[in-house]
Specification:
The chain is an all-alpha fold and 300 residues long. Helix content is 70%, strand content 0%. The protein has one domain: Orthogonal Bundle (MetI-like fold), CATH 1.10.3720. It is found in: Cell membrane.
Length: 300
């Protein structure tokens, strides 16, 4: 009961965020698929996902079948992209390697999100010595060049796809931590978060209801960018022999074999190189579309 003579407590509408309508929730999706460049990029990524799932069923040849009598064969109807130094069909190996193209970035970016997201939220909410310690750890990892740091971690864990992507995920974690921390700090300064704190809402509820939904957009932009970077790092480590091990196919290892055989088959670098460029460009284009959609949403 309110004391006599005192007006009933009223909630300021400006202190709570407006409800998200389905139209506002779908604005980012419409912005991504509504542009020709980003829609084509989504199509490329979707095609890679499909090939990663059903690649062995649609590959025209066995990607590991060797035919030394047919080494460096020119492109033909039998081998659309020719053959490599062991006589293996290049198109079949590119299709098979699309599984690595999807799995490798998912592992590394998943590790970065799994570690960087909670640490960034914790640093933003708690502050104090928690923020100082996590920030200094992130600065320490960021001080190392990405490829050098990944090489050091792979040297400890050993070569292989999983170990390589663990190393890349550890290198990506400070970047994700900084993005999450900065976005969360900006949200916690908003009026509706301060009002929720004043009325006694728990930190868990504030994170789930107010902070996480409002930092989802910048996190998604960073995820799409890191997916492309992870693909390049994985290809670089595979090129150096520290990533995917033979006879498994990887675009990076295919580039390494093509580079070693450039005088016998100078065109061999084109298929894996073009595939890698298109994939990285697609991830970056999707990230740019999400970023632009978020900017439009904030201005309205």
């Amino acid at each position: 009961m309110e004391p006599a003579g005192q007006p009933a407590a009223r909630v300021d509408p400006a202190a709570t965020p407006p409800p998200r309508s389905p139209r506002r929730r779908n604005r980012v999706l419409r912005a991504v698929v509504g542009r020709p460049a980003s829609a084509a990029s989504v199509g490329v990524v979707a095609l890679l996902v499909v090939l990663a799932i059903i690649g062995p069923l649609v590959a025209p040849h066995d990607p590991d079948a060797q035919n030394l009598a047919n080494r460096f064969a020119d492109p033909s109807w039998t081998h659309l992209f020719g053959t490599d130094d062991f006589g293996r069909d290049v198109l079949s190996r590119i299709i098979t390697a699309s599984r690595i193209t999807i799995i490798a970035p998912l592992i590394s970016v998943g590790i970065a999100v799994a570690i960087g997201l909670p640490l960034g939220l914790l640093a933003a909410i708690r502050g104090g010595w928690v923020d100082a310690v996590t920030g200094r750890l992130a600065d320490t990892v960021l001080a190392l060049p990405a490829l050098v740091g990944a090489l050091a971690i792979v040297a400890v864990l050993g070569p292989g796809l999983v170990n390589t992507m663990i190393a890349v995920g550890i290198i990506f974690t400070p970047t994700m931590f900084r993005i999450v921390r900065g976005a969360a700090l900006a949200v916690t300064e908003e009026t509706f978060v301060q009002s929720a704190t004043a009325i006694g809402s728990s930190q868990r509820r504030i994170l789930a209801v107010h902070v996480l939904p409002n930092i989802a957009a910048p996190v998604m932009v960073q995820v799409t960018i890191l997916m492309g970077v992870a693909l390049l790092v994985e290809a670089s480590l595979s090129f150096l022999g520290l990533g995917v091990q033979p006879p498994d196919a990887s675009w990076g290892s295919m580039l390494k074999a093509a580079y070693a055989s450039q005088f016998d088959a100078p065109y061999a670098v084109i298929p894996p190189g073009v595939a890698m460029v298109l994939t990285v460009l697609s991830f970056n284009t999707i990230g740019d579309a999400i970023r632009d959609a978020v900017g439009i949403r904030r201005r309205m």
